[in-house]
Amino acid sequence: MLIFDKVKNPLIHRMNSWLLWRQASVSWTSIHGPWLFTLLERMRTPSIFSVEAERERKRLLRDLSPVAPLDFGAGSQSASRTTANIAKSALKRPKHARALAALSRHIDAKHVLELGTCLGITTAYLSKEATTVTTLEGNPALAQRAEAIWKRLSIQNIRCITGAFDETLPTLPSKQYDLIFIDGNHRGDALIRYVNALAPSLSPKGVMVCDDIHWSPDMEHAWNKLMHEPRWTLKVDFYEWGMLTANLDLAREFHCIRF
Q1: What domain range includes position 236?
Q2: Is 133 a member of any domain?
Q3: Mind listing the pLDDT tens digit for each residue in 152-177?
Q4: pLDDT recorded at residue 80
Q5: What is the band of 247 on the pLDDT scale with cuts at 50, 70, 90?
Q6: Is there a domain that residue 153 lies in?
Q7: Which pLDDT score, from 0 to 100, does residue 211 have?
Q8: Strand duo 241-245 + 202-211: pairing
Q9: Which of the ends of the chain has fewer CB neighbours closer than 10 A, N or C?
Q10: Distance CA 201, CA 178 (A)
Q11: How many structural domains compose the chain?
Q12: Does position 1 have pLDDT exceeding 60, yes or no?
């Protein structure tokens, strides 16, 4: 079997990584902890599915208009830069957008912070389960498209800030967030830097979500490093994204879970 740090081709890396994750993972039904089991049940709740947001997703997948490239992170591994291509390759799948919204509901999140708006579909899901959502996006063209979607959906509790994360993060208001979702950039050192910078702003029972943790050997290494930090209690690897919390009411556990 291939070794992570010797895999050059990103597709081969992810295939290899998925096989190893699959071997280590367990079904969500095998989880016994009540906090986590209830969360996993809620992730499958049909009522969290957003018909309106998914209608917008379908529209985006048909949109062949070009998007001006502006990427502060590791970038897309696709050469195409149409709205449809970005929607296909970068948006969280409905299953995972719903899971993140369920997580927000589960922890009764009041304030959510998202790094990486993209086209705003996941943001729309999160807005239904929180009082406020602050989202950061590096590309103004994507932010403009996302804001047009929220306007059509009559969503009014989202604040979008454009610019490089390292420039916009220091401008955030000094308050605690119950859920922090880190997407975009896709560099391991950036992921660690953002987690360390935002950890003090996470509420005591809040949750940090790191997206695309197996996207590259670099991201995978960063995720493994974060998991071994003693400040985190419960740590969960869902393959497409990872979850960290410092909630002291929860046991110190790590799970790879299929849901």
Answers
A1: 28-50+92-258
A2: yes
A3: 999 999 999 999 999 999 999 878 99
A4: 52
A5: very high
A6: yes
A7: 97
A8: antiparallel
A9: N
A10: 9
A11: 1
A12: no
Residue 147 maps to a domain? yes
In the 3-class helix/strand/coil scheme, how is the chain assigned residue by residue? CCCHHHCCCHHHHHHHHHHHHHHHCEEHHHCCCHHHHHHHHHCCCHHHCCHHHHHHHHHHHCCCCECCCCCCCCCCCCCCCEHHHHHHHHCCCHHHHHHHHHHHHHCCCCEEEEECCCCCHHHHHHHCCCCEEEEEECCHHHHHHHHHHHHHCCCCCEEEEECCHHHHHHHCCCCCEEEEEECCCCCHHHHHHHHHHHHHHEEEEEEEEEECCCCCHHHHHHHHHHHCCCCCCEEEECCCEEEEECCCCCCCEEEEEEC
**Rounded Cα distance, 98 and 48, in Å:** 6
Q: For 29-66, what is each residue's pLDDT tens digit?
A: 999 999 999 999 999 988 899 999 999 999 999 999 99
At 131-146, the pLDDT tens digits run 999 999 999 999 999 9
Burial per residue of 113-138, b for 16 or more beta-carbon CB atoms within 10 angstroms, e otherwise? bbbbbbbbbbbbbbbbbbeebbbbbb
pTM of the model: 0.92
pLDDT at 47: 86
What local confidence, expressed as pLDDT, does residue 253 receive? 96
End-to-end alpha carbon distance in the chain: 25
- Residue 203: give its domain's CATH number: 3.40.50.150
Asked whether residue 2 carries a pLDDT value surpassing 50, the answer given is no
